[in-house]
Design goal:
The protein is α+β, with helices and mostly antiparallel strands. The chain contains 9 helices and 20 strands. Helix 2 crosses helix 8.
């Protein structure tokens, strides 16, 4: 099967990026150094091509109602120009994908899905919207560029002309129409790195010009292009889930510590509960003890605990596993290895020491709170 390609693929090749297949797309893994790209985002800014993310429009007089039924969140409560993180679940409560939904105008929503799940999300939304006055369409020939880091606002404002103040005033989880480097685009302030930052939604034909303009504007502010590897270590430090690791069809939002996105208080104008796919299953699990809990782990040694690593209490007793790591890597910001893992509830308290079986050897780890890193706004 041929991988899909970003409209910026040629730019990545020209910069010497190492490319990898991700979610059915050829995308840059790194340009130079994972650590330098990671640190640039924490201290200055990084420029990411995230055009592989699915962009799905849900439009029509029944769009809000269709999304209320399709996802676990309360889409009709999203204000125009605002966004919300949510999930689309199966009937049994398992997560099909985690999403960001932007309400562009009253009857038009933009749903951003993970690359590898886009087809599944389009299919589910189309089926669930069938009885509503709403249309679902996957947006083709589009690009999405993220600029993340403490200097992101300064850099983006410098190429936004008359829209600079509007971009500076943009709230977290909000979106506006703007001009960036002379191109009519949408700019959102969300992100997946734990830093302040923006996403520029554009047409594929605008992508190269925007990429060049942002690189040039950021050249004197420490901005560098960053790939998927840095994106992964950044989101891990920020305790953000990755589909296929912390989230999947066997996992409910409650197990992932994200029960807050499940709006069981979603009601119609008369106060009656609004039905949505997965509601019955999620209601039944709401107050029941989970079989596993997502926790943060700090390695007490220097060896990283990678995804799939088994966790035990006594390494001398095989078959006594009490959990498994879902993501793990050395943390450039913190200076020691970190991981996320699902463990049995009785071993989930902060401070609990466990053993990770790394290449047949026991490595000491300690349960810590999530996120590992939290952005501190400048004073």
């Amino acid at each position: 099967m041929t991988s899909k390609t970003s409209p910026l693929l040629g730019e990545h090749a020209a910069l010497g990026a190492s490319l990898t297949e991700f979610g059915g797309w050829q995308m840059p893994l790194r340009y130079d150094s994972d650590i330098s790209e990671h640190n640039a985002v924490r201290t200055a800014a990084g420029l990411f091509d995230i055009s592989h993310m699915g962009q799905i429009l849900v439009t029509g007089p029944g769009a809000a109602a269709a999304l209320d039924y399709a996802v676990v969140g309360w889409a009709s409560q999203i204000g125009e120009g605002r966004a919300r993180y949510t999930m689309i679940c199966a009937e049994d409560g398992g997560v099909i994908d985690d999403l960001v939904i932007y309400r562009l105008v009253q009857d038009e929503f933009l749903v951003v899905a993970n690359a590898g799940n886009t087809d599944a999300v389009v299919a589910a939304l189309t089926e669930r919207a069938a009885t509503f006055d709403a249309a679902v369409s996957l947006q083709e020939q589009v690009a999405l560029i993220a600029i993340q880091g403490p200097a992101a606002e300064l850099i983006l404002r410098s190429v936004a002309g008359d829209y600079a103040d509007a971009i500076g005033a943009l709230k977290y989880y909000a979106i506006i129409e703007a001009k960036v480097a002379g191109h009519r685009v949408r700019v959102a302030r969300t992100g997946y790195t734990g830093e302040d930052g923006f996403e520029v939604f554009a047409s594929a034909s605008q992508a190269v010009a925007l990429w060049h303009a942002l690189l040039a504007a950021g050249a004197n502010h420490g901005l560098i292009p960053a790939g998927l590897s840095a994106r992964d270590s950044l989101r891990l430090e920020a305790g953000m889930p990755l589909y296929g690791h912390e989230l999947d069809l066997t996992t409910t939002p409650f197990e992932a510590g994200l029960g807050r996105v499940v709006r069981l208080d979603k009601v119609d104008a008369g106060g009656a509960p609004l039905p949505f796919v997965g509601r019955a299953a999620l209601e039944s699990r709401r107050h029941s003890a989970p079989a596993r809990v997502l926790v943060g782990l700090r390695a007490l040694g220097r060896r990283a605990v990678r995804a799939g690593t088994e966790l035990v209490i006594d390494p001398a007793s095989p078959g006594r596993g009490i959990g498994r790591a879902t993501s793990g890597a050395p943390s450039p910001t913190l200076g020691y290895p970190i991981a996320m893992a699902y463990v049995s509830p009785e071993f989930s308290a902060i401070g609990t020491e466990l053993t990770a079986v790394v290449r047949g050897r026991g490595e000491a780890v300690q349960v810590v709170g999530l996120p590992f890193y939290r952005h501190q706004p400048a004073e």
